[in-house]
Amino acid sequence: MKATAAWFLAVVLTATSLPAAELWVGAAGTSITPDQSVALDGHRNLRMSNKVESPITATALALESRDKEKVLDQAILVSCDLVAIRDGILEKVREKVKSRLPGFDVKKLIVSATHTHNAPVTLEGRYTLPAQGNMKPSEYTEFMTTKVSEAIVESWKNRRVGKAGWGQGWAVVAQNRRAVYADGTAQMYGATNKPSFRGLEGYEDHSLDVLFFGDQKDHLLATAVNVPCPAQEAEGGLSILADFWHPAREGLRKGYGKDLLVLGWTGAGGDQSPHLMFRKPAEERMRKLRGLTRLEEVARRIVDGWQDAYEVARKDMRQDVVLRHCVREIELPRRKVTEAEVAEARKEAAKYAGNPAQRWNYRWNQGVVERYEAQKAGSEKPFTMELHVLRLGDVAIATNPFELFTDFGLQIKARSPAVQTFIIQLACDSGGYLPSERAVRGGGYSAVIQSSRVGPEGGQILVEETVRAIQDLWKK
Amino acid sequence: MRHPKPLSSLVVAMALVLTLGQAVLPARAAELWIGAATANITPDKSLPLTGGTAVRVSNGVLSPITANVLALESREGQRVVDQAILVSCDLCVIRPGIQDGFRKHLAGRLSGFDLNKLFLAATHTHDAPVLMQDRYDVKDYGDAMQPKDYVPWMYRQLAQAVEKAWEGRAAGAVAWGLGHAVAGHNRRVVYADGIARMHGNTNDPQFRNIEGYEDHALHVLCFYDAQKRLKAAALTLACTAQCASGTKVSADFWHDVRRLIRQRHGEGVCVLGFCAPAGDQTPRVQVGRTSDQRMFESRGLTYTQEIGRRIAVAFDDVAGVIAKDIRTDVPLVHRVRQIELPARIVTDAEYAVAKKVCDDINAKKTLTKSDYWTRDLYRSAAERYLAQKKDQGKTYAMELHVLRLGDVAIASNPFELFLDYGVQIEARSPAVQTFLIQLAGTGAQHAYYLPTPRAAAAGALDEKPFTNYSATVMTGMVGPEGGQKLVDLTLDEINALWKSPAKK
Question: For residue B13, is pLDDT > 90?
């Protein structure tokens, strides 16, 4: 009798301790560094690369949850050292991997950019390039999407039963780059040492959200690090480089294994950059005393914050975590072009029209004129975007294609039911800046009509749609 | 209420000329003499605690409250070049009259020291004693030690430490550095209707943004003895010490900072905690609290201990780096100025609200504990209105301390100064590092909050005291116009000590 009871108890205990779902994890990385000169993206003026300062890479993370043989949900997330995921890139990658990923729905593939301004242009026509001696954007895009596809396939193939953990640290990386003046105007990277300076426009989010993925023996395989700041400390120059993500990856690999794969995710940081807006002499002095470059200094902070998070998370690595992945196509209203804005844009576009060296400026202004004409003709279509929202245990992950101002990211985080909410901007498309209402009032680059196709009204809808999608994943 | 007479513009101009004329740095290397001491200002008795709308009587001590004293003197041979005594107190606010009273208490006890060059600053712990007898209804103090008894006792404790620091000063060295600790968070939550609420709910569909900036810089000054052993450290960050608020006396996170620094750097190290401009900041997390809580609880810490840990870690990091650049021959110059700022003008509408609230409370047969505090604040606004109608009280007098210590500028103010003003001063300062200390040396009048234009515009005064609390005229003797003047006058003084154009 006693033996029967003990057996029954054992069965019950075993049954209740069985994982509800098993998490399968795979990861792979690849270099997407071209071996020829390329045009570098992110600036108005053409820059042709002349060396590689650090390799630019793509890192793929494959996740699948299973209940025994049954697949519950899936996701593949790829972080790329690119300025943005321009038109056509996602489609090209999906097309290349489609037949090579049996059982995977390619709509559940997310590709995002770290926003390094020292990575190749991927769209033809943005600049007037030299005829010879360089790799053209279409050639680079073909090369890059092939490499990314290979990493995706590898990550999917090498997935195995693993564990996930999450934690939060802090890293003072993002600096609000919009200086506000006595007359109410704002200027990106505006001077702060003049008497009319009144303050920085808004918030800085110094949280560092981290996901950790290990095997069953708790050996760390991959980590995803969410920094609400684009990787553009180095911007400028003629080198190809991965900005602060390169020394950050090196720092993490030095401490936690040379094969550790690191995904850099940029949080909502349209109004942020690592550039110092004030207190530069003190920061520079400390950096020099440490013997670091500025990129290394930013990376040092990320690594320190990551270690702080890992110290806690490593004690709580979980195998039976929920994975749910929702993909929605949503529509956002386009920002309305005013008469004054189109008049200014027409004037500027006309100024640059005949000058091949000013192609970027021409397109920047002419785009506004075309939008206005569509708006007037009633043929303007809403901005359509792919929204990915994932639940991984107590963590929510939400994507958007914009340089999303921090205020919107904060709203999503504040209203999310998740313990931690990761925002990945610059994902699956390139929607330009999405400024807050106060930024539009202040004006300046990143908030003017030329910089933004979707305005504060659309931003609010994005917040509501994202929060609703996250909440849906938390409903029983 | 007493209102100081405004200085004439001629006197101000003369003072400025004098300042510029005096701002000549030592021609040759100076020797820095340093003294430090700590006073326990925690009596072995129950105390009424300040910082809330109603008085709380303490029922124990969570952590001792202390005052930490730093005495500085620069010398060229036998000649004294300049001096300063800075006192960081685990108090909520240095209330009107406290600093003057302490200087009188010290009179004649510090040989060769000009007492005007001493200032007290508060860390803003909300678990420290009431300092003004009439701050709350005296009946609510019960059997606790009364403010009128606590203050003289505190003076005696403080005086012993100041004397010890001053008399014990000896030739030493100094180093400075900058680190980062995420401690302060902007506490003003803005909603779709443009209204801001202090500690408002962010998990609300109407939530639009956090009003302004957060500054996670940690400025560090390390002072060493002749053998380069750490003797004292002064830290300033834009965060008030108000993680906890209960019925036990507490130094808040500064207790943990001191404990950890002493553990790592020696039990004798004197740690001065200063609060940089942080009128709109507290340690309370506005977004992401669940995650933050999971982290510190997993570490087995309270939130107070967690903030202490972050600051101590950042201090260690900085102290390790700046040990490469310890200096002995730094200039010390200390200017003390009486300046006047335009007072915030109370409007007719604000007066009407203030008067009604006071009248309503006065008409009550029984007052609640918070009525006393509420009436005090509204009455202050009403009285200022009436004075201003008589062309009085249109300026606010304050004592401004500006020091140069090597490449570092130190500047004080008595307010809960909104961060934007601090950012302006730092951005325009010619110093390599600019240490700002708020809640320092209040004069004859309360200082309260000094809000920015955007904060002042985020909600009009009404009968609910917490409507746009910290930015209405009820809690602001000086408004944005005065804040800008404070920035400019502080920079004038700092620039005079550097005598070079401002740089970014």
Answer: no
Contact residues, A window 22-41, toward B, CB-based 8 Å cutoff = none
Is the CA virtual torsion A125, A130, A131, A132 positive or negative? negative
In a domain, B484, yes or no: no
Q: Given CB atoms, is B424 within the 8 Å cutoff of chain A?
A: yes
Contact A410 B202 (CB under 8 A): yes
Contacts of A191 in chain B (CB under 8 A): 504
Q: What is the DSSP letter of B225?
A: -
pTM of the model: 0.94
Q: Which residues in chain A have Cβ-Cβ distances shorter than 8 Å to B291?
A: 168, 207, 209, 419-420
Does residue B481 lie within any of the structural domains?
Answer: no
Residues B179 and B226 both lie in one domain: yes
pLDDT category at B466 given cuts 50, 70, 90 is very high
Which residues fall within 8 angstroms of residue B151, CB to CB, at 6 or more apart?
A: B98, B101, B131
Tokens of A6: 């003990």
Is there a single domain that holds both residue B360 and residue B411? no
State the pLDDT confidence band at B446, using cuts at 50, 70 and 90. very high
What beta strand segments (E) does A275-347 contain?
323-332
- For residue B26, the model assigns a pLDDT of 43
Residue B126 lies in a domain: yes
Residues B359 and B319 in one domain: no
Claim to verify: residue B378 and residue B408 sit in the same structural domain: no
CA dist., res. B140 & res. A394, Å (int): 46
The verdict on residue B163 lying in a domain is: yes
Compute the distance between CA of residue A59 and CA of residue A78 in angstroms, rounded to an integer.
5
Are B303 and B351 in the same domain? no
Residues B162 and B276 in one domain: yes
Mean pLDDT calculated for residue range B167-174: 98
Q: What is the DSSP letter of B138?
A: G
Please tell me whether residue B51 adopts helix, strand or coil conformation: coil
Reduced to 3 states, what is the DSSP secondary structure of residue A31? strand
What does the DSSP 8-state code read for residue A63? E
pLDDT tens-place string over residues B401-423? 999 999 999 999 999 999 999 99
pLDDT bracket for residue B22 (50, 70, 90) = very low
Structural domains counted in chain B = 2
- Domain range for residue B178? 31-336+401-456+493-498
Question: 447-486 in B: which are within 8 Å (CB) of A?
Answer: 452-453
Inform me whether the C-beta atom of residue A396 falls under 8 Å from chain B C-beta atoms: no
- Partner A contacted by B502 (CB < 8 A): yes
Please write the tens of the pLDDT for every residue from A163-183: 999 999 999 999 999 999 999
Cβ <8 Å between B210 and A192: no
Mutate to test the interface with A, among B176, B182, B306 (most CBs of A within 10 A): B182
Interchain CB contact of A184 with B (< 8 Å): no
Kindly tell me if the per-residue pLDDT of B162 is higher than 70.
yes
Residues of chain A positioned with their CB less than 8 A from the CB of B204: 414-415
Residues B361, B228, single domain; the answer is no
In the numeric block, the tokens 């303050």 are attached to A199
On the question of pLDDT at B2 being above 60, the answer is: no
Contact A361, A348 (CB under 8 A): yes
Amino acid at A470: I
Q: What are the chain A neighbours of B203 within 8 Å (beta carbons)?
A: 414-415
